[in-house]
Amino acid sequence: MLPTKMPAGGPGLKVLHVAAEVYPLVKTGGLADVVAALPPAQALAGADVRLLLPGLPAILDAVQSARTVIDIGACFGALRVRLLLARLPGSQLPVYVVDAPHLYRRPGSPYQDSQGAEWTDNLQRFALLGWVAAHLAADDADPSWVPDIVHAHDWHAAMACAYMADHAPTQAASVFTVHNLAFQGLFPHHDWALLGLGSRFMSPSGLEFHGQLSFMKAGLKFADKVSTVSPNYAVEIATPEFGCGLDGVIRGRASDVSGILNGIDEAVWSPAQDAAIAARYDADRPDGKRACRTVLQKMMGLAPDESALILTVVSRLTSQKGLDLVLAALPALVRAGVQFAVQGTGEPALETAFRMAEQAYPGRVAVYIGYDETRAHQLIAGADVIAVPSRFEPCGLTQLYGLRYGTLPLVRRVGGLADTVQDAQPAAVDRVASGAAGQTGFAFDAATPAAFEACVQRALALKADAPAWRAVMQRGMAQDLSWAGPAHAYLALYQQALEARARSPRGLAG
Ligand code: ADP
Ligand code: GLC
Description:
Layout: E1 14-18, H1 30-44, E2 48-54, H2 57-62, E3 64-75, E4 78-87, E5 94-99, H3 101-104, H4 122-137, E6 149-153, H5 154-165, E7 173-178, E8 186-188, E9 208-209, E10 212-214, H6 215-222, E11 225-228, H7 231-236, H8 247-252, E12 257-259, H9 288-300, E13 309-317, H10 323-335, E14 338-346, H11 348-360, E15 365-369, H12 373-382, E16 385-388, H13 398-404, E17 408-412, H14 415-420, E18 442-444, H15 449-463, H16 466-477, H17 484-503
Parallel strand pairs: 1-2, 1-6, 2-5, 6-7, 7-11, 11-12, 13-14, 13-16, 14-15, 16-17, 17-18
Antiparallel strand pairs: 3-4, 4-5, 8-10, 9-10
Helix pairs in contact: 1-17, 4-5, 5-6, 9-12, 10-11, 10-15
Alpha-D-glucopyranose binds at residues 29-31, 34, 179-180, 229, 262, 393-397.
């Protein structure tokens, strides 16, 4: 249940979330899940929350009761730009939508064309999004509602922070959340003139990044506070290993950077009320999980083997996710009695490699190349273990879904994975689950097939000890993974951002 305590920023603090995606309308990854669940959790905690989204077809088609707030006219190369105010289906939160047909009304991914190339006008598309946010913050777009806080998510929304800094009278404070530092929004230097920002912003202390323009830097340099999606990733991104070239910039903001762990949307991810799975279950009545397991084997074409350890992967197939480790360790693990149920889409080489593994091990390896929310629930409910062996992972949501569904997460000890999964050593497993604290899954360190394989071997060993397995599973299922805690943590961060802004608005000196 969400607490009713008022936000640290005071009752009715006006918060504008700016993002490029929101589940279930537009989703390429966990960002969409966060943008769908954090705002309603903050609204329940007493904040006055709205969203600002680009007018992508799936968004325009789905929002309800849309009306025009302001006709902006021509800008960023689009002839006709309007700001609409509507309601999000489901949460019914107010949502501003930037309707710019020339820039946003096109099919496919929000970021790429059907060939996987970045849209060539992404600079204009996402500069416009930030520019509209800054106008809302400056009280010259919607006189009936002016945000106290603009919360920009990832590089797509980061320009809001620069445009706000360029307009000194703006009262609102800005918070920038890094969901993934690897995607930075880099553009050619010569496109600078398209942004309509003061030329002083085009310097190394502004947006300039090794001769290019960096939207990510707009957020990192000009937001009043910077956050990322786990405490551990907040520490990692200040190092050359995880900083993607921006660790120096992040160290420069050290006192303003923090990490707040993501939650999960329990209305969507909860085995006790999940309509997508074969049988409902919870920590006290876990029997339904067995039915989900049997249905999963049938659905994926895995052999009906009661004793196998079913390991699932539900993931973007990209180098970030470390799935080459899974592929390399797979033959030995199949021999050891593991069944693999993999669902993902992404890099063609990884898709092909998983398809080949499926052909090589029929009945033991099953692969679904594609994106399917319902099947994701079925895999996560039916498997014994969910593997997330990422090279880096800002937070990760699927290991949290695994905890919720009694599917033990097996993760590499990086980023948010290290913050959310406590390793269970079979020799030292606490066989009595009392509460949520303690061992909840499996973790390994080295990004090598051998380390991954050894970790799965430990899972196999634990599976042979049913009471110990059950204790680990029950501890994970008992954890509070809801958005209530993180929603309050962000509200406290907003208060700090307002105080920081009142002390000294961010300019180029910072
Ligand atoms: P990232 O955002 O880096 O991809 P997260 O773990 O934060 O990683 O979030 C991934 C989200 O995308 C989860 O909600 C996961 O269930 C979902 N997902 C990833 N791949 C697929 C797929 N092929 N089908 C359905 N859902 C998927
Ligand atoms: C990014 C990260 C992922 C995180 C998600 C939501 O896509 O890769 O780790 O969980 O954002 O914050």
